[in-house]
Amino acid sequence: MKAVRRTRSLPGLLLAVLALVALTLGAPQATAATGVSAIADVLRKSPVYVDPAAADQLSTADADTLARQIKNADKPLFVAVLPAGYPTQDLFTNLRTATGVTGLYAVRLGDRFDARADSSVLPRTAVKNLVTSVQGETAEAQLTDFTDRALANMGGKAPASWGGGSTGGSGVSSTALITIGAVAVAGGAGAYALVRRNRRRHEEEQRAALDRLRVVVDEDITAFGEELDRLDFHPAEPGADDAMRADYERALNAYDQAKSAMSDARRPEDVRAVTQALEDGRFSLAQLAARREGRPLPERRPPCFFDPRHGPSVTDAAWTPPGGAPREVPVCAADATRLADGRDPVVREVDTEYGRRPYWDAGPAYGPWAGGYFGGGILPGLLLGTALGGWMSAPAYAADYGTGYGDFGGYDTGGYQGGDVSGADFDPGDFGDFGGGGDFGGGGGDSGDFGGGF
Question: Which residue among 185, 340, 426, 431 has the highest number of C-beta atoms inside a 10 angstrom radius?
Answer without folding.
Answer: 426
